[in-house]
Structure formats: C-alpha cells, structure tokens
Amino acid sequence: MLKISITLLFFLITSLPVLSAPRVPAELTDNGLIYCTHATGFSFNPQTADAGTSMNVVTEQIYNKLFEIKANSSQVVPSLAQSYKISPDGKTITLYLRRGVKFHHTPWFTPSRDFNADDVVFSLNRVLGHNTSLPEFELEKEQNIANRQYSIFHDLAKKTRFPYFESIKLSQKINYVENVDPYTVQIHLFEPDASILSHLASQYAVIFSHEYALQLNADDNLEQLDTLPVGTGAYQLQEYLRGQYVRLMPNPYYWQKPAKISNIIIDLSTDKTGRMAKFFNNECHIAAFPEVSQLGLLQQSGAQFKTTITEGMNLSFLAFNFLRPAMQNADLRRAIALAINRERLIKHIYYDTAVVANNIIPAISWAAGNDASHFDYNYDPKKAREILANMQVPPLEMWSVQEEQLFNPAPIKMAEMIRADLKAVGLDVKVRLISRNFLTENLHNKTEDYDLILAGWLAGSLDPDSFLRPILSCGTTNEISNVSNWCSESFDQLLDSALTHSDPHARAADYAIAQRQVFSELPILPLANVKRILISNTRVNGIEVTPFGNIHFEKLSLKKERK
Fold first, then answer.
1. SS3 call for 51
2. Relative to the CA of 314, which of 88, 112, 147, 422 has its CA 20 to 30 Å away?
3. Element (H, E) at 334
4. How many CA atoms lie within 13 A of 258 on its CB side?
5. What is the DSSP string of 189-221?
C-alpha cells in the first residue's frame, strides 16, 4: 500500500504543478543554468530589502561589496577594498580601494570611468540617510507648480528605507564618510565598533555607481537605481520578466576570474512544490528552498541529484509581548516555554532539516559558544501545569504572519501545534493570522495587542551584533524586528561593551553573559535554527552555500551532457 501511495504522489508532483508556470524559452538555456527559487521579497537592491527576510540570490551576482566574510569566522577579507587600517583610537577606518574595477556596460548606462572612492562614499551615505553625494536641482517657480505631483512622486522615491541598516542603527555608529583621494576612503565612527567591517561584508552592503546615480538624479529618475541595476559583479542583468524569471549574462569586464556559464536563468515562477516538480522534469539545475517533506520521494525516485546543506544564521522564535499585562508575569512566560514541544516542531514543521535552538546566537556564528547548560526550558508539561496551578490566566492571543519564511516554512501549522501544546496545560490561546503589512502598521501605531507572536530573524552577517541588537535591544522596540518590545539597559550595555573589544574572545564573553540574561528574563523562546538546503543536478559543479543561503554563480560550471 505504501508503495502505491508513493508512486501516486510522485506522479502528482511531477505532472500537475508544472502546468502552473511556463517553461523558460529553450534559446536562453544554451550553455545555461536554471536556478529555481521564490519571488517573495524579490529586489534588485539588497540595501532596501526587508531585514530578516531571505535575500534573493540575484544581488550577489550583480554587485560587489567592500569586504567578504572569511570562512564563517569573525574575520573579513578585502574585496572592492584592497586593504584597510584602523586608527589607534579605533574611530577611523581607512580603506584603500582596488583599482581597475569596471562597472557594467548596459543598454541604459555606459560608464565613463572605473570604480573609485566616490562610489563608496555615495553608497554608504545613501544607507546613512546623508544626501550629500547627489545635488539638488532648483526648479523655477512656474515649473514647480506645473509639475507639483511629479515632484512629490520623486521626492517620495528618494525617501527610501534601508531596513537592515536601520535595524543595526548604522547611522548611530558611523559619523561620516569622506574620500581622501580617488582610491582612499575614511569612515569616521562615533565610538570604536568591532562590528563595522562585518556589516560592510553583509549581503546588504553593496556598492553602486555614483556616476549612474548622478545621471538618474539629473533626469529625476533615481528610483531606477533599484530597478535597472548597475554593479561591478560577475554577472549583469540581461532581461527581467516580473514574477517569472531573471536572465543574467557574464560581465565581460569583470575584475576577477570570468564566469564560465553564459546564461543564468533565475526562475521565480513557482512555489516549493512547483520547484520540486520542475526539478523532477529537469527544468531546474538547482532548486532552492525545496519542499523538504518531498525530499524522501526524490531519493526513492532514483533521480540523480546532489543535496548541499549548511548551517544557517537564522532563528525561529516565539516572542512574548512585554506591553501586555499577562506577559509581564515571568512565571507565566516560563510555563509557556516548558509547555511547548520543540522537538515535535523540528520533526513535523522542518522534517529534521533544523535543530532545536538552545541559544539565541546560532551555532554557525563564531560567538555562539556553548551556553545550552544555562537554558532550562526543555519540554516539561508536568512542570508547566504545576507553575500554572494557582494562576488565573485570561485567554491569550497569538499572532502569526501568514507568510512562508525560511525560519518558518509552515506558520499556520506551527501556530496550531503550539496552541495545542498550550491547551494541554490549561491555557486558552486564540490564533490570529495576519499579513506582514498589518503587523508593520500596528507596530508603527503602537496598537499591537497580541500576547504571543511567532517570529524569526535572518542575519546579514555572522557578527552577533547583527543578530542580537535588531531582535532584542531597546533601540528597536515597536519595530518589526523586536516584536517582544523587551528593553533592558543592562543588556544594551553588554552589546555596546562587546563592540569595544578587538579580541573576538572578549566579545564572545560579553555575548555569553547577554544570552544568559535573555534566558533568565525570557522575552523570547528560541525554537529552531534552520539549515540551508539546495538540491542540484549532478552536472553542476562548484556549489558552495553560505549561512545566508547565497551561492556565487561565477564559481559554477556545467559538465557536458551525454548525447
């Protein structure tokens, strides 16, 4: 009977969902690779991408950064910055830039010069909210009146938000940026900060062409900077069909080793089941975010494929809203933590492609340490009932964003499983499914009336500051990253203290104390750290997945197909 069920399910997966999306045109796949992923949160500008969501792989190919993270460590290696030095007082970072790096030549922009300091200053100033790199053009009074709506539209376009940099409070770290000469840039900090270079190596910290921005600004068309990208990366944009696919072609002027694959197609057209179907039908060489419940079927099908798995810099958690009277009861928070069977979530939500999180900082980070001994909230419903025995707990409301994320691929199912666990110990919980926009609006208006909320975080670097500060610091209360609204001055002082140490071991010691404080006060209950998974055709060589889910296409090659 089991064999028949598997065969039937295999037939359904490999046939019906494929009809929901068109094939990529065959003429685009000559010496080409098709990478199937999702369109959620898609953007050609990682600077403006929503912090804590999965970055699309496209941006890592189009742009370069000043630094790259070295082998999952606390160290960074220069990229567009060829070298750097830090002043004795730790407040000035001098960058010596790489020469001979060229921007993309595209139908919408032809650069007249190479990459230089102006591009770095513009790119950093933009995320800091400084507009000194772009001139303001005065319009005559009559023209102003005639084009009032047009001017309002473009003024709003310039007020771009940069969620990642806002979540780490970059504008409170960097005082100003200046170009000393065409290939030297100085970054002046308010205080010494050991996390800055890691933030400049994050997937959000890409470098734009200042010349391109000036051209767009002169045409009052600056929003095009985020829709028709120009970078220095190994690949450049050739074609984009919204919601369907992106076509990339090699940058012939790339400053490192040239890319080996002539066409890269990023297929955005399917959900997880659809991607598995396309992979079965050889319409994807690589499938990201596969439906993990179907991986067993893929193995049983006899298909030739490879699975690439790496630990992820992410956390799924349940947050307790400290603005709600019930959630200010520490014993109630502890009882809820003890009542939740996290091992069951790993099995039935993640199908064992995640691990139970016993730390706030994921194990892949150099500062994770081994503080599991301080976390004593393993599943114990008996103890939870004992704590709750003499409590009068009103009905509680739990919110869950109705949107699949890497840290929570099945938010509705997870919410119902947690609700069932809490009901088993006598707690009445109502689940409310919401949109991300609804949550953002309520946080902005300070009208969020949930007691519990399922949340998560995807960091942009391995530095713990980019993990702890957004989700737990005082500076991010009432923002979408810190949904517990917890604020502790002593916790913030530990985070600030860690940034003053140049020695990673000293920093890690501060973060260990900070984590123990979180375990004691319990503003959030860590649930899971999710592994990054790609499945690929055996023809594809050179796949290396970062803890952030990215791969570098210039490192990939394709074996020739057997005729």
1. coil
2. 422
3. helix 330-339
4. 8
5. ESS--TTHHHHHTSTT-B---HHHHHHHHHTT-
CA 56-465-545 angle, 5° bins: 35
The pair of three-digit structure tokens given for residue 430, joined into one six-digit string: 């109502």
Helix, strand, or coil here: 160? coil
Query: Tell me, what amino acid is at 353?
Result: T
Q: What is the DSSP string of 501-528?
A: -SSHHHHHHHHHHHHHHHHHH-SEEEEE
Beta-bridge mates of residue 287: 36, 535
In this structure, are residues 118 and 126 in contact, taking their beta carbons and an 8 Å threshold?
no
Angle, CA 97 vertex, CA 96 and CA 100 arms, to 5°: 145
pTM value? 0.83
Tell me: pLDDT of 250 over 50. Answer: yes
pLDDT digits (tens, 9 = 90+) for 414-426: 999 999 999 999 9
Beta bridge partners of 265: 34, 247
DSSP designation for 129: T
CB distance 387 to 380 below 8 Å: no
What is the C-alpha separation between 184 and 210, in angstroms, rounded? Answer: 15
Secondary structure, 3-state, 448-486: CCCCEEEEEEECCCCCCHHHHHHHHCHHHECCCCECCCC
> What is the DSSP pairing of strand 245-250 with strand 235-241?
antiparallel
Q: Is the pLDDT of residue 17 over 50?
A: no
Residue pointed to by tokens 């690439």: 308
Residue whose pair of structure tokens reads 């069977």 in the numeric block: 341
Using the structure block, give the residue that is written with the tokens 């069932």: 420
91-113 pLDDT tens trace: 999 999 999 999 999 999 999 99
Phi/psi class of residue 64: alpha, beta or left (left: φ > 0; alpha: ψ in -120 to 50)?
A: beta
